[in-house]
Amino acid sequence: MSLFKRVKNLISKQPPAPAEKSILTLGPGDVCEVSFVTYQVTGRTQNRQRNAVILTLQDGAAIRYLSIEERERTVYALYEPIDGRLDSLQEVPATLELDGRVYYLEEHYAGFITAAGKTPFMQGGEQHVWQFQTDDRKLLRVEWQNGRFVLYEGENIIPADVRVIRGV
């Protein structure tokens, strides 16, 4: 290497280091840990209007969904899919009873989502979400998009239980 090239390398700016991934920027192929269980992220659904992300997580054959919503503080919830059926978008009740547990409607919203990887809804578009909670703080989430309902049951997760292990 010539003296000129060495001086040029000393003077030139080095490219910036890639930004470290946060839990809100994870996508398919990344790895995270939730409540001491390591999952591979296989899908991502994002609602930019609410600053919310749903990550599809897989650990072996088990599939879970991590809901992350950034408000005045970041709120996490871990869900698993359940069997259930609702007949109509207009007939989602304010209370639901499943397995002897009564869920009360906390919030209903609609917005446009984008989807990447393996998610329950393989394309973006308008999505309606109903979030329910019981008196003992169990959660129920109902999603509707393109005529299809998906139901999830879960619980809130404290932020210390969620961490990024490896971002691709």
Describe this structure in words.
The model has no long low-confidence stretch (mean pLDDT 89). It contains 1 helix and 11 strands; from the N terminus they run αβββββββββββ. An 8-stranded antiparallel β-barrel has the order 2-3-4-5-10-9-8-7. It is mainly beta and 168 residues long.
Note the run of SSEs as H and E: HEEEEEEEEEEE
Q: Helix segment count?
A: 1
Taking the sheet with the most strands, its summary is: 8 strands, antiparallel, barrel
Structural class: mainly beta
Poorly predicted tracts of residues: none
- What is the arithmetic mean of pLDDT? 89
Share of helix, binned: under 10%
Distance between the termini: 34 Å
Provide a brief overview of the structure.
The protein has 1 helix and 11 strands. The chain is mostly beta strands. A hairpin with a 3-residue loop joins β4 (62-70) and β5 (74-82).
Task: Give me the secondary-structure topology.
Blueprint: H1 3-11, E1 31-34, E2 37-47, E3 52-59, E4 62-70, E5 74-82, E6 95-98, E7 101-117, E8 125-133, E9 138-145, E10 148-157, E11 162-166
Antiparallel strand pairs: 1-2, 1-11, 2-3, 2-7, 3-4, 4-5, 5-10, 6-7, 7-8, 8-9, 9-10
Give descriptors for this structure.
168 residues, mainly beta, eight-stranded antiparallel barrel, 11 strands, 5% helix
